[in-house]
Amino acid sequence: MDLAAAVLEGNRLALARCLTQIENGTLEGRDALNRLFPNTGHAHLIGVTGAPGTGKSSLVNQLARYYRQPGSLENSTRSRPLRIGIVAIDPTSPFTGGAILGDRVRMRDLAGDSGVFIRSMATRGSLGGLAHATAGVVQVMDAAGFEVILIETVGAGQAEVDIARLAHTTLVVEAPGLGDEIQAIKAGILEIADILVINKSDQPGAEATERALRSMLQLAHPVPHIFQHHGHLEIVPASHLESGNKTLWVPPLQRTVATEGVGIVELVSVIERHYQFLQDTGEWQQREQARLQSELNIILQETLVDRWRSTISEKRYNDVLDSLVSRDLSPWQAVETLLDGDLE
């Protein structure tokens, strides 16, 4: 079967097989991705991240259901219903190498909808909240014609910033009762947020969580507003959201109760506003460039390391490693020895 051609024709079985080949890093998968890549760059990539227990899977389920409803956003520039791709990433056990891939349990409502394709992935040891092959999987779904792709990260806490390099719109999901208020204003994960979501907002402590997040936003946007978002230092005058000739986006805060569908309409409306913002300001192209540059650098590093590793013998590598373990060489000296010199 010609996987690339079949994927473009809408063959779901071919799509599943293609994604498996990409996850496994086979030459067939890489060839399919190379052929499909010219057809990518159209999907709206929405990242959903946050700590375990915040209800990310339930939120993704409700977002997908809403996007699939005819006429759900009549005032949007995009027609409805949209075709939805979902990439749900679960952690891999460091002991057995297995993964439960339990996100589908919370997405049973979507079963049987031909306009939704769910792909569960294991991290396979990757850090940062995403699996190693996530970017390739997303690109194949994009080429297959899915207009919105929801990417749910592992939920490891405060280090899942890789999603900001991949997604156009990043939702950071918080929930009351998961810890003290200081956890809500930790900088690392909140700086990647395009939209802050307080899920399970019907539970005690929701007000405190919202106050903590609003305090964080006020600290991040003083007068004049100065903040760092997606790695760029931005300045926003107090009276409006214009900085020179550039319009800036201040992350809004939205309450939801995903299990009951509360706040989903408003959240989708905010996501659509961010989508339009990206289109109107040219930020979409900038994020696409940054995303592809990041992917290029990662592939380049891996390829160069593999090529270098193939040029040295296993004995030489192990000899340097033994010298490192015995403290005869420091890590930097070991690298220099492997790259430039021989063991004395």
Compact description:
This protein has helices at residues 3-8, 12-23, 27-36, 56-67, 134-143, 163-166, 181-184, 187-190, 206-220, 264-281, 283-309, 314-325, 331-340; strands at 44-50, 84-90, 116-122, 148-152, 169-174, 195-198, 225-229, 232-236, 242-243, 246-247, 253-255. The protein is an alpha/beta fold and 344 residues long.
Question: Strand-residue fraction?
Answer: 15-25%
Structural class determined from secondary elements:
alpha/beta
C-alpha end-to-end distance: 55 Å
> Which CATH C-level class is it?
Alpha Beta
- How many domain regions? 1
Fold and architecture overview:
By secondary structure, this protein is an alpha/beta fold. It has one domain (40-281): P-loop containing nucleotide triphosphate hydrolases (Rossmann fold, 3-Layer(aba) Sandwich). It is built from 13 helices and eleven strands. The chain has helices at residues 3-8, 12-23, 27-36, 56-67, 134-143, 163-166, 181-184, 187-190, 206-220, 264-281, 283-309, 314-325, 331-340, and strands spanning 44-50, 84-90, 116-122, 148-152, 169-174, 195-198, 225-229, 232-236, 242-243, 246-247, 253-255. Strands 3-2-4-1-5-6-11 form a seven-stranded parallel sheet, with helices on both faces. The chain has a two-stranded antiparallel ribbon with strand order 7-8. A two-stranded antiparallel ribbon has the order 9-10. A hairpin with a 2-residue loop joins β9 and β10. α2 packs across α3 (27-36) and α12 (314-325) packs antiparallel against α13. The chain starts with a helix and ends with a helix.
